[in-house]
Amino acid sequence: MEYISGVLEELEAIVHNASSVPMRKGRALVDRSDVLVMLDELRSVLPAELSEAESVRRECSAMVAAAEEEAERILEEARHRVEERVEHTDVYLRSQRQVAEIVEAAERYAREVSSGSEAYRERILGQLENWCHDSLTSVKESRQELNSPPIRRPVQPEAPEENGEEPGWQANSA
After folding, report:
1. According to the model, what pLDDT value does residue 162 have?
2. Does residue 21 contact residue 29 with C-beta atoms inside 8 Å?
3. Is 20 helix (H, G, I), strand (E, B) or coil?
């Protein structure tokens, strides 16, 4: 790497020491052969340096990947250990008992609600059944009454009442 830096410094010196082109700002005349020699030297050295840098980069990538895998393995092992330890703590055991009690209470409440709803359903359906039965009985009686011959009542002659009351109404002294 030091050699490459030296060659680059020589190229820079060649450009700085080059003669300026009149009427052309920023332009200079350099010896073409000097620059080409320096570029050839760079080309001969760079492939080895680039190959070495690529090898170092690959090694670094492999080391990072291995470190990440190891870190993931360590974290997974730590999680497993924590889970094992938590399962044996008083807090965890108490929480498990509380969960079981809550589930049992909820199931008991659900059974009570179900039982109550069944009783309510039976009561309402019984009332509906009685109402329907009474309605059918009433309809049957009405049909029989409508289908039966009319009842003839004896007609009483209309006579004016002596006591001034309307006919058909009599006072009873009992």
Report:
1. 57
2. yes
3. strand
Residues 11, 17 contacting (CB under 8 angstroms): no
Distance CA 154, CA 6 (A): 149
Neighbours of 40 (CB within 10 A): 11
Contacts of 158 (CB under 8 A, 6+ apart): 167
- How far apart are the C-alpha atoms of 93 and 46, rounded to whole Å? 67
- Tell me which of 63-72, 77-86, 102-111 is least confident: 77-86
Summarize pLDDT for 82-129 with one digit per residue, the tens. Answer: 888 877 788 888 888 999 999 999 999 999 999 889 889 999 999 999
Residues 14 and 34 sit within 8 Å (Cβ to Cβ): yes
Spatial distance between the Cα atoms of 119 and 114, rounded to a whole number of angstroms? 9
Task: Give the whole-angstrom CA distance, residue 38 versus residue 7.
Answer: 6
Query: Which residues of 21-146 form beta strands (DSSP E)?
Result: 28-29
Any idea what DSSP says for residue 30? -
Q: Name the residue ranges covered by the structural domains of the chain.
A: 1-11+27-70
pLDDT digits (tens, 9 = 90+) for 5-30: 787 888 888 888 877 777 777 787 88
Contact present, 14 and 35 (Cβ < 8 Å): yes
- Considering the entire predicted model, what is its pTM? 0.33
